[in-house]
Amino acid sequence: MPNFLKTLTYHYREQVARHKNLPFLKATMAASAIVATSDGEVTFDERMRVDQVLETLEALKVFDPHEGVNLFNGFVEALKQSPEAGHAAAVEAIMAVAADPEKAELMVRICLALSETDGEVSLVEQIEIVTLCSLLGLDAKAFGLYRDEIGKALAME
User: Fold this and answer.
1) What's the pTM?
2) Does domain 2-156 fall into CATH 1.10.3680?
């Protein structure tokens, strides 16, 4: 009987964690899809980075990685099929974590890591991440997206 209760408790806690973290999973996959599609193509390296995030991030380990990949692919397809409607659906999912600054910040850091997979961050990816920061009420400077030195150097020219 004690093993039955342990098993029951384990499954209950797992389901609670899944329920609690589902908005974060959807928001992260939506934001990742926006960043990945912003330069016109979703590379194999970007897809691998999404897999890594799903398999290593504690808040997302409670989900089958295929569930996250399917969400990511769904957002990517929606963005390709109808950029305006796809973007609106992605933003709706992203806003579900806007009230939680810790999760919002983590999501932005995941997007930064995704944008760096091919060795260089494109300007359109940076713009999407800055826009994401703005939507979430986060300071893009905190993520190294604005550099005062560059602005000062340009002003001196």
Assistant:
1) 0.84
2) yes
